[in-house]
Amino acid sequence: MKKFLYAVGIFISELCFSQENASKIKASLFEGIAVAGYVDHGAFINFTGPSVSLAHRKLKFILGMLPSIRIKEDRSSGTKNSPITPNLGVGFTVIYRKAVLQIPLYYNTKTSTQDGNWKIGIGLGYSFK
């Protein structure tokens, strides 16, 4: 009985792996989406990060995080912040073939002159995939 169970186990395991695709390894220097745009009287450059996406024919919709570099001059009096800062935003991205349209949201923290609030922007980019 043990030999029969071993034989059935080996047979079932062979069936499970019989439809496995051959693995292909691809190396790429850069893969993703690059976007530049405008938000809150400044610019941003981002590369889409972790996200949830839905593809339909030649359109792809993405909702996700946007690790970015924001470029904005600090116009406050006194000590000034750097004009180039790293930032994490969230946003909605639409890709048609290689063209990208993005609507990002970035949070500006509370300062002595302004309350903290979300700012919406717009960006255009290119999909490298």
Briefly characterize the structure.
The chain has one helix at residues 2-17; strands at residues 33-39, 42-47, 51-56, 59-71, 84-96, 99-108, 117-127. By secondary structure, it is mostly beta strands. Strand 3 (51-56) and strand 4 form a beta hairpin.
Name its key features.
six-stranded antiparallel beta barrel, 12% helix, 129 residues, single chain, 1 helix, 7 strands, mainly beta
Verbal overview:
The chain has 129 residues and is mostly beta strands. The chain has one helix and seven strands, in the order H-E-E-E-E-E-E-E. It has one helix spanning 2-17; strands at residues 33-39, 42-47, 51-56, 59-71, 84-96, 99-108, 117-127. Strands 1-2-4-5-6-7 form a six-stranded antiparallel β-barrel. A hairpin with a 2-residue loop joins strand 5 and strand 6. The chain is elongated. The model is unreliable at 22-30 (pLDDT under 50).
What is this structure's SSE topology?
Layout: H1 2-17, E1 33-39, E2 42-47, E3 51-56, E4 59-71, E5 84-96, E6 99-108, E7 117-127
Antiparallel strand pairs: 1-2, 1-7, 2-4, 3-4, 4-5, 5-6, 6-7
Quaternary? single chain
Q: Which descriptor suits the 3D outline?
A: elongated
- Residue share in helices? 10-25%
- Which structural class matches the secondary elements? mainly beta
Q: What is the average per-residue confidence, as pLDDT, rounded to a whole number? A: 81
- What is the overall number of helices? 1
Query: What separation lies between the terminal Cα atoms?
Result: 54 Å
Strand content: over 45%
How are helices and strands ordered from N to C? HEEEEEEE
Computed over alpha carbons, the radius of gyration is 24 Å
